[in-house]
Design a protein that fits this description.
The complex is a heterodimer of chains A (about 230) and B (about 200).
Chain A lengths: L4 H7 L7 H6 L7 H16 L9 H14 L6 H10 L10 H72 L7 H10 L18 H4 L8 H8 L3
Helix pairs in contact in A: 6-7
Chain B lengths: L12 H9 L3 H22 L4 H17 L10 H26 L22 H14 L2 H12 L4 H8 L3 H18 L10
Helix pairs in contact in B: 1-2, 2-3, 4-7, 5-8, 6-8, 7-8
The chains are: A mainly alpha (about 230), B mainly alpha (about 200).
Chain lengths: ~230, ~200
């Protein structure tokens, strides 16, 4: 924006003035001395402590009264803004946010007791499961006792087979020692066992020895002629 | 949703006016805080340094804002609008005074006899300068003094003055030039002594 004459005079030095600026101030001053004098005059105007009265408090009070009369039912801004958001006039009753919030709260109130109840039920179920497993373990112990006995009774048969095989010159894996070990552990609760429940249930393959005639593959191997 | 209280200090004048039209008291307080002093000063200078008048006029302008905020066009700048209203109020007051002057037989009190004492050149006191400046500004005709006041005392731009007075930028500049020339001539004897 083009500067007015007073700005030129107060802000610039005479030597720095352009031809255009010199022309614009030519009617006020024609030389440097006049220019400096004018500068001092206008600086004095700006530095003047203007005797401007301050508005009276009574004027403000009067305006406040007028405001209160003009806007008597004006609600506070924060209140009106909340109301306009929560209960907008342009929306239907069902679509109003306040109703939605109320519905969500109601659902939560209804749902919370059910949620807590479900947790308690689960606890009961867990306890029952534990009891059942213990019972199962006890059942297993009961079942395995005769198996062990069978193994014990079968040890004689193995020894017999072992003896006959040796006589035939065929080497057969001796299970006598392992059977003896199984005797001590199978089906019984072992204090030093790796099993988390302290129970070791021997698998049938490892603990039970049976006659070769019950295992066709082995029988074929034994009876094969080389 | 705006639940937090708005920071009125950072809100524009135009936005405050919109809030006032909705009955926001704090918006009105903020606008009053921004312009009351400035308007009292303007009326005080334009209305022959009459404090009572200045106070009354400032009250009237804010009463207008309260009662008829719809008069303000939000597309305009509030500052230029409020000063144009203030300026029109001053013009109306000048007309009233003119009528009174014509009907009265007394001398016009606003026009004092100039007393340029050559000796003051060497005794520049601020009070004298102030008085002389105020007198010179007062002696200027209305259209020149209002432009000078708006530009150099109220600090408005030439464009804003043009908008307030509904005249062109060029007219504002030429009036400013005339006012400056007049004041420079009248205050010439206050210039510091320079060896010529």
């Amino acid at each position: 924006m083009e500067k007015d004459i007073i700005e030129i005079i107060t802000e610039k030095e005479y030597k720095t003035l352009t031809q255009e600026e010199l022309h614009s101030i030519s009617e006020l001053c024609t030389n440097e001395v006049d220019f400096i004098q004018l500068k001092a005059t206008f600086k004095s105007i700006y530095n003047l402590d203007q005797d401007v009265p301050t508005p009276r408090a009574s004027t403000k009070n009067s305006l406040d009264d007028l405001f209160a009369k003009t806007y008597p039912k004006a609600t506070p801004v924060w209140y009106s803004s909340i109301t306009s958001v929560v209960i907008p006039k342009d929306k239907k009753f069902i679509q109003q946010p306040l109703l939605k919030v109320a519905a969500i709260l109601l659902l939560l109130i209804i749902a919370v007791p059910f949620l807590t109840q479900n947790i308690e039920v689960k606890k009961d179920q867990l306890a029952e499961v534990q009891i059942k497993t213990e019972k199962k373990d006890q059942d297993l112990n009961k079942i395995e006792v005769p198996v062990v006995k069978e193994v014990e009774s079968g040890s004689d048969a193995t020894e017999e087979i072992q003896g006959s095989n040796q006589s035939n010159g065929i080497q057969v894996r001796s299970v006598g020692s392992s059977v003896a070990a199984i005797d001590a552990t199978s089906g019984a609760i072992q204090p030093g066992s790796n099993h988390p429940d302290g129970v070791f249930v021997a698998s049938v393959d490892e603990t039970v020895s049976m006659a070769v005639s019950f295992q066709p593959d082995v029988l074929d191997l034994l009876t094969a002629t080389f | 949703m705006r639940l937090i209280k708005p920071q009125y200090k950072t809100i524009t004048d135009e936005a405050l006016m919109i809030s006032i039209s909705k009955g926001d008291k704090r918006a009105f307080d903020e606008l009053y805080k921004r312009y009351s002093q400035q308007l009292v000063g303007y009326f005080f200078r334009m209305l022959w340094k009459d404090r009572e008048k200045a106070e009354d006029f400032m009250h009237d302008i804010f009463a207008k804002i309260i009662k008829k905020p719809e008069l303000f066009d939000p597309s305009r700048k509030f500052k230029t609008w409020v000063f144009s209203v203030a300026n029109n109020m001053c013009k109306n007051e000048y007309k009233k005074q003119e009528v009174r002057k014509n009907t009265s037989s007394g001398l016009d009190s606003s026009y004092n006899v100039h007393d340029f004492n050559a000796n003051v050149l060497n005794e520049v006191h601020e009070s004298d300068f102030k008085r002389q400046f105020a007198q010179s500004l007062n002696d200027l005709d209305e259209k020149h003094s209002e432009v000078f006041t708006l530009r150099h005392i109220e600090g408005l731009s030439i464009k804003e003055i043009a908008e307030i007075l509904e005249i062109s930028d060029g007219t504002v500049k030429s009036r400013l030039f005339y006012a400056t020339k007049y004041l420079a001539q009248n205050l010439d004897h206050f210039n510091p002594q320079i060896t010529r």
